[in-house]
Amino acid sequence: MIHCYEPARKLFQSTERLPLHSHRYFQILSTPVINRHSTPTPTGMASRDVLIGVIGGTGLYHLDNLTLIETVNPETPWGSPSSPIAICSLKSGTKVAFVARHGRHHNISPSVVPSRANIAALKSLGVRAILAFSSVGSLREEIVPGHFAIPTQIIDRTKGIRPASFFEGTGVVAHATFGEPFSIKLVRWLEVEVEKALKAHGNGVVLHKDRCIICMEGPQFSTRAESMMYRGWGGDLINMSVLPEAKLAREAEVSYALIATATDYDSWRPHSEVVTATQVIQTLRANADTAKFVAASILEDLHIAALQGDILSEEKGSMKYSIMPRDAQESEEDTKKLAFILPEYFGPNELAN
Question: Which pTM value belongs to this model?
Answer without folding.
Answer: 0.87
